[in-house]
Prior knowledge:
Elements: H1 3-15, H2 20-30, H3 38-41, E1 54-56, E2 65-67, H4 78-93, E3 96-100, E4 114-120, E5 123-132, H5 138-155, E6 160-165, H6 168-178, E7 190-194, H7 195-200, E8 207-209, E9 212-216
Parallel strand pairs: 5-6, 6-7
Antiparallel strand pairs: 1-2, 3-4, 4-5, 8-9
Helix pairs in contact: 2-4
Amino acid sequence: xxxxxxxxKRLISDFxxxxxxxxxxxxxxxxxxxxxxxxxxxRQTKPLLNDGVxxxxxxxxxxxxxxxxxxxxxxxxxxxxxxxxILVALHLHFDLRYWRRPKQKFHARLNEDLYAVxxxxxxxxxxxxxxxxxxEGYKQIGEKMTRYLRQYEAKGQPFIVLFITQDEGWLSKLxxxxxxxxxxxxxxxxxxxxxxxxxxxxDQAICRLPHDPAAYxxxxxxxx
Length: 224
């Protein structure tokens, strides 16, 4: 394999499951060469797909999915690819110092979709990130937020919960419903935005809070 093949393999391991669109987004930062030629390295006749990279061939209208573990029998990747969208945006636009993407869920745990640490000139911030495809109801999401509040009370360590939805209408309804769950004094812990906004302008004031009409960036105390 070539050095760029090894880089693609690493990116698939670090960020996957992912599609070629994610690799194209990462091309400039990761020195993958021309984005128009990445697909050639992902042909099944090439060494890359015979050395620990697995492929899931979806329908003609959907991009193939690649991962560093066996995904050949998987059918639904909507949630996984949404998490990858978020992770790639963080990597491209912020000082992403650490991340963890749990693959298992446990009863009564936080069960975040993504945990990330972003660097700042004055230190670093810890984020628990929830990727919402609309499959959970108000009650489940409210219980999830309550668990985060309990985590803060138990540990006393500051963190931010970044909740990203696929739909603006659903986001607005969630903010209304969660006003009774999230106390006013803790509202800065919880930021809400949509996936489209986060991908297109992640460093802008795209986030909303319960009890607060202002717009915020994912970095705290920066309102517009």
